[in-house]
Amino acid sequence: MSSLAELEEQIVSAVKALVDDGLLTEQFLELVRLQDSSEPTFLSELAGIFFSTAEEKLREMNRMLADEAVGGATDYPELDNIAHKLKGSSASFGARVVAEECGALREACESRQREACRGVVARQAAALEALKGRLQEVMELDARRRALV
Hints:
One of its GO terms (molecular function) is protein histidine kinase binding. Functions as a two-component phosphorelay mediators between cytokinin sensor histidine kinases and response regulators (B-type ARRs). Plays an important role in propagating cytokinin signal transduction. It is found in: Cytoplasm, Cytosol; Nucleus. This protein has helices spanning 4-20, 26-34, 42-67, 76-93, 96-110, 114-148. It has 149 residues and is mostly helical.
């Protein structure tokens, strides 16, 4: 059985691997450090909120981009607004690839390139799913750590 110190070291090591792989920024390490005994579920709750919100924003963007295909016009300013919000929350969470793709989406919105927007949103969804899968290990380690506290 792992000690508390060993589990905390494993969590930091797993997060550093995600940073090294380019999926996360150092910002996420700061979030890991904010978790303490007074807020033992901080990290898992924050991750749940981030992924839920990001997935909803992606669904909304996909819906907006699909509307044009059935006769509606894409509301590029609103799509850009959603991308801006997702970029901010992704940067705050440390989701590097998702935040970077938001910048690409904002550029595609500015030039009103619907197919480019669709491609970026697809890449964002893939990056989000990859990050979610890789963070699962961190969340499992964190659950084991909480059981020892």
